[in-house]
Amino acid sequence: ELEQMKEAVQKQERTARAVADNVAYKRGEREEQQLSEGVAAKKREQAALGDQTALEREIDRAEGQLEAAKQQGFTQKGTLSQLQANISKHQRELKARPALSFLAPQLQNIDQLYKNKLIELRTTEMANHDLDKYMSALDKALMKFHTTKMEEINRIVKELWQMTYQGRDIDMIQVKADMEGHAGRSYNYRVVMICGDAELDMRGRCSAGQKVLACLVIRLALAETFCLKCGILALDEPTTNLDAKNSQALAAALLNIMHNRKGQDNFQLIVITHDVKFAHMIGQRDHANYYWRITKDEHQNSLVERMNIFGD
Fold it and tell me: Which has the closest alpha carbon to 241: 199, 288, 200, 275?
């Protein structure tokens, strides 16, 4: 029985030690978990703070700016103190001298002079403001005028080209105005040829005859647009590099212009040409009674003769 009691006591002691060990183990697990959570929290705090070196650099930079601001503040305070001292000095001087008779004559009636100058300043500012408005309105009017005239020129160019050009490779030509600069007050003009939906610059892509015809058409369009009151239109050798069909079409276009201008008293068409056939085509009796022919005699002297239209 005594042995049984000893064995029971030993068993209870082992059980107590196991319970104590288990309790200590659980306590250790809790402490380990708490420490892990604390480490994780510290890591999060450190991540939120960022790089320590970068923070130190930022602090140094902020301290430098603060020091510079303090120095600037001290300088401004010194300047302010000096100005206040000067003001006080001048105020004392003014109080010590009750009258202004000691001042120069140009400083007499200073209030009226100041008022006059102020009125002049405000008037000048108002005038400048009005001039700015007028300049803006003038710019807009010029832009609108330019756009309108370009549309009119291109309309006449299209009509004259389709009336005179006998080829099928160019449907019409147009004058393009590309703006230059930010203000948009200058333009770069170029001539393009259009066939169907294709549009190409004429420079370097057209024949000599096409180039001459395009120049004539554009000159005629400019004359029709801008020279209605100045009725003189001069063409020097207009059929140069033109074939017979295009020369005949150009003559027809000139006849159409003369027909449209026949009611204008001051209209005068001057054509200088070596092409007698072309001269006969445009020199019809409906528009002229004679033309002038210039030749040279055997001594190479110029002879000017008045010739009847279709005369021998």
Answer: 275
